[in-house]
């Protein structure tokens, strides 16, 4: 498996600033997970409308 640490940048360059999600660690057990699926997860958790926002 792979572990990711998800941490909001303290000095974000543009608004709206992205919040820190409650669960800052993400474990992916399946090594075949794509970056697109991870992006969709983050878009959902951050409440964004579009995958191009993060």
Automatic annotation (TrEMBL):
Origin superkingdom: Eukaryota
Official protein name in the record: Uncharacterized protein
Source species of the chain: Oryza brachyantha (malo sina)
Lineage, uppermost ranks: Eukaryota, Viridiplantae, Streptophyta, Embryophyta, Tracheophyta
